[in-house]
Amino acid sequence: MRLTLRVWRQRDADTPGAMVTYDIDDISEDMSFLEMLDTLNEKLILRGEEPVAFDHDCREGICGACGVVINGDAHGPERTTTCQLHMRHFDDGDTVDVEPWRAGAFPVVKDLVVDRSAFDRIIGAGGYISVPTGAAPEAHATPVPKADADFAFEHAECIGCGACVAACPNGSAMLFTSAKVNHLNVLPQGAPERETRVLDMVSAMDEEGFGGCTLAGECATACPKGIALPSIAAMNKEWLRATRKASRR
Amino acid sequence: MSENTDYTAYETGAPVVDTKAPAGPVAERWDTRRFEAKLVNPANRRKHTVIVVGTGLAGGAAGATLAEQGYHVVQFCYQDSPRRAHSIAAQGGINAAKNYRNDGDSVHRLFYDTVKGGDFRARESNVHRLAQISVEIIDQCVAQGVPFAREYGGLLDTRSFGGVQVSRTFYARGQTGQQLLLGAYQALSRQIAAGNVEMHARTEMLDLIVVDGRARGIVARDLITGHVDTYFADAVVLASGGYGNVFYLSTNAKNSNATAIWRAHRRGAYFANPCFTQIHPTCIPRSGDHQSKLTLMSESLRNDGRIWVPKAHGDTRPPAEIPEDERDYYLERIYPSFGNLVPRDIASRAAKNVCDEGRGVGPGGQGVYLDFADAIRRLGRDAVEEKYGNLFEMYERITAENPYEVPMRIYPAIHYTMGGLWVDYDLQTTVPGLFAIGEANFSDHGANRLGASALMQGLADGYFVLPSTINDYLARNPHHDDIDASHPEAVRAVAETNDRLERLLAVDGDRTPDSFHREIGELLWEYCGMARTEEGLRKALGRIPEIREEFWHRIKVPGTGQELNQSLEKANRIVDYLELAELLCLDALHRTESCGGHFREESQTEGGEAERRDEEFSYAAAWEFAGTGRAPVLHKEALEFAYVHPTQRSYA
Amino acid sequence: MALATRTDRRPSLTRSLWGSTVGKKTVMAVSGLIMLMYLVAHMLGNLKIFFGSGEFNTYAHWLRTMGEPLLHYEWALWGVRVVLLAAVVLHGVAAYQLSRRDIRARPSKYVHKRRRASYATRTMRWGGIILALFIVWHLLDLTTLTVNENAQPGRPYENVVATFSTWYGNVIYLVAMLAVGLHVRHGFWSAAQTLGMGNARRDRILKTLANGLALVLTAGFVSVPVAVMTGVVG
């Protein structure tokens, strides 16, 4: 199939970018979206042009490295990661716009590559359970009700790709932050740091310059792992609880 | 750069000996070693800097643990975040000898299974230590909040995996690797935030700096600015993963690479058993030349699916139109007692054989059917969906075929590499101060890795083994001279790195990096893949130097070195693959036995089974680098089996 | 040897609330719910207009004598006014500050534009501005009677009829009431989420409640000008 691609090209963080049009044929519908970009890049290299830079690694939908906005949708029209999106979801002759995640807290590094290190700093602020190696009690010492374990797992599935921020009209990281808060706060192992975790992670999120949540719901629609919007409400509840408790101390 | 030297005319040097493994009963060796190892006073630890390369299960766990102990850790990963290493893609689970099921499991049984599963090419002391530590790993991960599957009583669930008779595999749905990695990443993040770990993401190690025979630092390139810089430490830990991507198409992440271990090898670290590569039988076959990687499907599918190909050559009818008596259920035919459940290597080779005969199915004839029609008839569609629903969904997303109606197509793919840098019991390589952990080393899996053991080994190395053994090295080498970028060895390493990058940019030829990567990968897959012959390996060994020569004349890398340049990154990794491929073939050529993931057609029983030759090959082959294209030197580490006695496998 | 990675010093409750995006949203949610409760009461009061001038004007007078004899004349009313004013100011300032932050957090727009989110969600900011302006006009029109040409103090029934006898009075009011409906529709549900009341099971109930409230409020308020226009009230 033939496609007209319009791809965001930006030399580096300090140079303004623009959409550049490429016509590409011999695209197979069995290709993944990233393999389609590979094909484009092979042609660009042989023409002596710089290939389009984009982040990717596992190409199995789990590492969270890849992610571009395709025709205005984070990760494109299917609810999956860009690497697991296949070209059969496009039609011959389509024009496809490819842009990087856009958010103040995710500056563009080059072309479709953005800097998501803000996510790492949010995790560093409290997205962990403090248990130095060797200090752990026997695994069965604390049973965890299955419902809580499942709730924790559903939130722990987050791959940190940043699609939620990219899709949010406010560039908010609430869904990402809430996924980690909920994962750890529901577990008995996470209980001692339950209050500090949510307070510190929310303030780290604010300090990184992410926007606030207006419950537009775009994040949950874009999330390739299906983290649902009530995740945010659950974190708000944790935050209010922690704020109440902290003010009483 | 033509090489006239005969690469295959290698010499055998002095044996390599593991001087750190204590004597005594195998079950007490780890305690003995921990007691004998010298310690570093807690107050002095912050004066020691340790470099850790990689942030997978092994690297992430090691970085966090060393920082918790008080060391100053400087850590690197090429990804944009330490949360993305390819450990994250492991699906199945992690083994531990907890015996929660009361089904007769024990540390000794896990030890026994792993030595036997490795086809008697692993060290008993290492494997026993791994089995002992497996128990602590589960405790540690649960305390970190890893959401393992649980039963209604709130206790951990386990399942059996990879044909083992006990239920010792802990799992978190099909995402165990992800959950364990995030646990390590979170522990690491805590130490980064506390300032105990200096994290350099998007920074790739390109060389090792060895001063006075000791590993003292690395050369690394900032992938954003392109700046090549030096970093110094008292010890260097490589946790950079395996080298499966030398095959181009593998289940590895696209950017997983062998540069860190290969550069260390060039600087003196021996490379052991490179020919021990694992091929996984149930991957989704390639759909065309554009294929960039292969995706694994859980092995559990073989429990209910039946594998077949048409009896006739070149039969292109759709599967539904091929009548029952024209189908060849070849595994059930050749291995009547195990049928579709034969081990990974056997299933893989059988698939290759029928495809080589021209009976393969799907585009390019590189696939076999995995048919669930019988299972659906027998169990009902709902039961099949309950068991395999998520896998079927994944398959359909990638292939657009509905496996409930059309048989799946599968084909084997490179999945894991058991070989790696040679390490002693302390996980130290032959370069003092250089340690290798996780898939980067060769130590625990012998010639074949059992399912759910990779996660166990990565975490054992990272959380427990290395943080204990590295103390001994640091305590015995307390006062290193301070060195900086002006040291001649550092200057030399940086100059060599810059020179290599500049040469890559200067060729300005007419072939892309991927085209070379694909070529070397196809060559290896053909001649050093599932079944290897002397003739094929010699052909590959003849061809590799030619490709290398062509590479340096025809490679085209656009852009500059002073920016994010993904073509340059790829090309630079291929430089190392072009050398590693040669050693891989040589190791396969020299080992004229079949064992584990290494199958030499010349060494098989009358029934076509792999035939091990213990009298000649009961050793680990550690290769010493002698120059590009020059025959390396072989150092043998003799393996002794005092507890698990070698037997020949049979599945017919 | 793990070093402590946190301190336990915490800012005061007020600073936590005002100093974080989640806290400011909480302020907006609480102030919004206060205004919503007021709107419900206000709408019910408005419906008394259907029972004639006497009953409506008596009700209006009662608003001033509410709480007597414990409270002095108009004390209760002023109490309500102060609370409402505080709610409006907090709601508005928080909305303004959060909006500025949100816009900064998304400095460059996507080239490929797509309609996203529901209409009610997308119109929260403009709707809020429209409502703020409406409140000013509404107070000048029916409380201070500054812009109501035919106004007579102490005759609220007649004043309402006067307002809805002008075309612009009707237009302004109808537009504002549609804005109220949309604002409440997303605002009520959103406030519930902010206050942590949402979960997967409750979501449908909350959404239905939000839609119901929006509909009832809009219908209740709009019924008055429609009644004046059609001559039912006059």
From TrEMBL, chain A:
Cofactor(s), by name: [3Fe-4S] cluster; [2Fe-2S] cluster
Keyword Coiled coil: no
This protein's UniProt keywords: Iron, Iron-sulfur, Metal-binding
4Fe-4S ferredoxin-type domain segment(s): 149-179
UniProt xrefs under InterPro entries: 2Fe-2S_ferredoxin-like_sf (IPR036010), 2Fe-2S_ferredoxin-type (IPR001041), 2Fe2S_fd_BS (IPR006058), 4Fe4S_Fe-S-bd (IPR017896), 4Fe4S_Fe_S_CS (IPR017900), Beta-grasp_dom_sf (IPR012675), Helical_ferredxn (IPR009051), SDH/FRD_Iron-Sulfur (IPR050573)
Pfam families, sorted: Fer2_3, Fer4_8
Record flagged with keyword 4Fe-4S: no
2Fe-2S ferredoxin-type domain ranges (all copies): 18-102
Family: Belongs to the succinate dehydrogenase/fumarate reductase iron-sulfur protein family.
Listed name of the protein: Succinate dehydrogenase
Species for this entry: Streptomyces chryseus
Automatic annotation (TrEMBL), chain B:
Record-linked Pfam families: FAD_binding_2 (PF00890), Succ_DH_flav_C (PF02910)
The keyword Flavoprotein appears for this protein: yes
Keyword list, A-Z: Flavoprotein, Oxidoreductase
Entries under Gene3D superfamilies matching the protein: FAD/NAD(P)-binding domain, Fumarate reductase/succinate dehydrogenase flavoprotein-like, C-terminal domain, Succinate dehydrogenase/fumarate reductase flavoprotein, catalytic domain
Source organism, top-level taxon: Bacteria
FAD-dependent oxidoreductase 2 FAD-binding domain segment(s): 50-455
Domain Fumarate reductase/succinate dehydrogenase flavoprotein-like C-terminal: 517-651
NCBIfam families: PRK07573.1, sdhA_Bsu
UniProt name for this protein: Succinate dehydrogenase flavoprotein subunit
Protein's organism: Streptomyces chryseus
